[in-house]
């Protein structure tokens, strides 16, 4: 039996971030993971560090926050990241026209510098067809090109854990949490992998499993689990660039991501089972993804090589699926449920895992009476100092919290910016101030 300041449950990228942040502040930390680092939701993500341009339609503050923290990830984990140019082709009959799509990217350009992204390019149909060979020409109005960061997600979780260990954290893999220890109405640690790890504070960072872990402590942390499936093709370069495509049915978009892991198509975004261990890919999902990509490529392979599926830990909230906030929250079970020594971090996405960890460890330190400041933004994963950190503004936490459970207001807030931006865009177009690029400019930027 060992005593720790903090015990972390979950070795995905968020739990790894919590362990690293706390260890760098001088806390004595233990982390348990039921399998391998990042082997759950982290591994089943699209492997992109991105702000989420589509969130500008209904959750602008999450786009802002994700871009802001993505910049920290680029500075501290840059050797794991590769810039990925992405093309969004727009056709006649699409749900959103070219002017609307470009307005979204003009707004996204405001946040792109935070994560070292480049301004978008508007492409002619001819340029898009040369950049993406095999793309269907009929009805193509043009395209928007932008970039995000591809990351080996499991390597990011693993390297973050290694950084935590270098700072003194103890990590226990293949150690599922089986019991929450309690003493005097407080959580006093956990039992995992045959070990009893006692801690002044326990942080539940188990992603879509946070409610199952909370239940061990006799409390609940409701989520709206959304299932995401990707098709995987062994051919690593079915397209020379990434793609963002309007999917079948026009209500969703899917990525096509060429990478060292193969070409990934997805994700789906469907309500999943309450138990993330029961999440499975269905034939309907496979058909939906296949049909969605074949709308754009007559010669796309008939068969994929494998699939991967995971559950997204979306915070429990009202609203339709397309309006769900991707924000995160740290739950203090002492003030919420009368159970001291226990915190849960839920929601969020890989692109803001560092600020999620910082927020959770700030609360841990407050409870422990520790005044050490966060250092994860100022040290790379291998311990080198980060010397140039731009002072970008961060979105208001109070406004984010207010809008989190008010989907209609959150959507109106986002659309008010897009409405003003659309009027400005049309005026610039009328004045001939919106440039249109050819394939040569695209290649100069990305090759």
Short description:
Helix content is 33%, strand content 26%.
What does this structure look like?
By secondary structure, the protein is an alpha+beta fold. It has a domain at 2-41 and 154-222 and 325-374: FAD/NAD(P)-binding domain. It is 33% helix and 26% strand. Strands 3, 4, 5, 6, 11, 12, 13, 14, 15 and 16 form a 10-stranded mixed beta sheet that branches. Strands 1, 2, 7, 8, 9, 10, 17 and 18 form an 8-stranded mixed beta sheet that branches. The protein is globular, with a radius of gyration of 22 Å. The mean pLDDT is 95.
Could you name the key traits of this structure?
single chain; 447 residues; alpha+beta; FAD/NAD(P)-binding domain; ten-stranded mixed β-sheet; eight-stranded mixed β-sheet; 18 strands; 33% helix; globular
- Our estimate of the beta-strand percent is 25-35%
Q: What is the CATH architecture term of one domain?
A: 3-Layer(bba) Sandwich
Rg (C-alpha, Å): 22 Å
Helix content: 25-40%
Can you tell me the residue ranges where pLDDT is under 50 for at least 5 consecutive residues? Answer: none
CATH structural class of one domain: Alpha Beta
CATH fold type of one domain = FAD/NAD(P)-binding domain
Q: Termini distance? A: 55 Å
Rough outline: globular
How many strands, what sense, and barrel or not for the largest sheet?
A: 10 strands, mixed
By CATH, the superfamily of one domain comes out as FAD/NAD(P)-binding domain
Overall pLDDT level? 95
- Beta strand count: 18
Oligomer state equals single chain
Secondary structure category? alpha+beta
Total number of helical segments? Answer: 13
């Amino acid at each position: 039996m060992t005593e720790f300041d903090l015990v972390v449950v979950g070795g995905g990228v968020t739990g790894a971030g919590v362990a690293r942040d706390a260890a760098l502040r001088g806390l004595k930390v233990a982390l348990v993971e039921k399998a391998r680092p990042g082997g759950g939701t982290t591994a089943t993500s699209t492997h992109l560090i991105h702000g989420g341009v589509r969130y500008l339609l209904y959750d602008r503050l999450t786009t802002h926050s994700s871009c802001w923290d993505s910049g920290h990830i680029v500075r501290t984990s840059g050797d794991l990241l590769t810039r990925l140019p992405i093309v969004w082709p727009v056709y006649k009959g699409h749900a959103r026209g070219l002017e609307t799509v470009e307005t979204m990217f003009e707004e996204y350009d405001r946040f792109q510098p935070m994560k070292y992204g480049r301004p978008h390019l508007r492409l002619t149909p001819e340029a898009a067809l040369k950049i993406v060979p095999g793309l269907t020409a009929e009805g193509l109005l043009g395209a928007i090109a932008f970039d995000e960061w591809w990351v080996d997600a499991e390597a990011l979780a693993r390297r973050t854990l290694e950084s935590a260990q270098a700072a003194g954290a103890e990590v226990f893999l293949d150690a599922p949490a089986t019991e929450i220890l309690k003493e005097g109405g407080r959580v006093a640690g956990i039992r995992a992998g045959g070990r009893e790890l006692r801690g002044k504070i326990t942080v539940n960072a188990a992603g879509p499993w946070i409610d199952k872990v909370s239940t061990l402590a006799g409390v609940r942390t409701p989520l709206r689990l959304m299932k995401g499936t990707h098709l995987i093709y062994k051919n690593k370069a079915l397209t020379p660039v990434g793609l963002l495509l309007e999917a079948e049915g026009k209500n969703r978009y899917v990525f096509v991501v060429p990478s060292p892991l193969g070409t990934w198509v997805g994700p789906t975004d469907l309500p999943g089972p309450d138990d993330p261990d029961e999440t499975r890919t269905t034939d309907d999902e496979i058909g939906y993804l296949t049909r969605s990509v074949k709308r754009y490529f007559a010669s796309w392979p008939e068969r994929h090589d494998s699939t991967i599926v995971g559950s997204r830990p979306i915070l429990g909230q009202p609203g339709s699926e397309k309006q769900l906030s991707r924000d995160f929250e740290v739950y203090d079970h002492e003030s919420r449920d009368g159970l001291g020594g226990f915190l849960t971090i839920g929601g969020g996405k890989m692109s803001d895992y560092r600020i999620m960890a910082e927020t959770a460890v700030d609360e841990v330190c407050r409870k422990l009476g520790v005044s050490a400041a966060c250092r994860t933004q100022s040290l790379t994963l291998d311990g080198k100092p980060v010397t140039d950190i731009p002072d970008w503004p961060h979105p208001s936490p109070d406004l984010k919290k207010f809008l989190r459970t008010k989907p209609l207001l959150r959507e109106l807030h986002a659309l008010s910016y897009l409405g003003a931006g659309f009027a400005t865009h049309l005026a610039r177009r009328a004045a001939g101030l919106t440039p249109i690029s050819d394939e040569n400019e695209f290649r100069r930027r990305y090759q």
